[in-house]
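Thread: Newbie trying to understand structure tokens

Hi all, I'm a second-year student working on a class project, and my supervisor (Dr. K.) asked me to get a predicted structure for one chain before our next meeting. I've only ever worked with sequences, so writing a 3D structure as a token string is new to me. If someone could post the tokens and maybe explain what I'm looking at, I'd be very grateful. Here's the chain:
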Amino acid sequence: MKNLRFILLLLKLRLSHMMVFRLSFFGAFFADGTLFLMQLLSFSVIYGQVDAIGGWSRGQMLVFVGTFSMINAINMTVYFFGLINIPELIRGGGLDLYITKPVNPLFRLTFENADPGSVPLLCLSGAIIAYGLSVEGAPLTAPLIAGYVAFVLIMTLLYYDMELILRTIPFFVISAAAIDRLEGDLLTLNFKIPGIIYKGGFKILFYFIMPYGIMATVPTQFVTKTLTPAGLVHAVCAAALFTVFALWFWRFGLKHYKSAM
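---
Reply by user tm_fold:
Sure, no problem. This is what the structure looks like when written as tokens:
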């Protein structure tokens, strides 16, 4: 409850700050909505002329696109704008201000820059998921919906882990520009291609080493009843292991932090 009150306070302060510049606040709604429409256009161009991709129907692909957009929208709404500042804070010494406060620095970095401007993308993503399920004709039950929501949250946690790991690397290097480019390219690729397409070395890379390939694939497989027990266990274990590693790596990075101030 103490952490929840702190999160609510951070959100209140964030909203107050954003509403000072109302054009920027509502501009975020417009920008995210435009990005979503561009994603749908990209999907239409790439997949509109075929009935199946790697054995997946058009309905499954719509659910996949909506799921990846939903995970990204949660990311943008809750923690992205906090984590993205970590490399600059490390390089400029600003992390000192977080370490010396009586609050877990990672906890504060995670939630202090929540962005309500991305909330409409959550609604639009939900709409495309619902449309994809209707096209697929998949019968929905309460346990199936609950399981899908749980997998989306688990994969969002995995997404958070990957962002934290990549932004902890600057504790040990000078520049993080290449890391940002790598992450952007990986997300762009895995937004367009479901994980079931990957074979051989690519599957090892995107399922085990940098598991972007399972983030939207597994929830889609679950809600369309194509997820195998092995796939379910792998997804849960991957999220758990990467969470443990990300938190350890962050603490390890803090031990090697040298203030620039």
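A couple of things are worth pointing out once you decode it. The chain is about 75% helix and 0% strand. The chain has a mean pLDDT of 84. Feel free to ask follow-ups in this thread.
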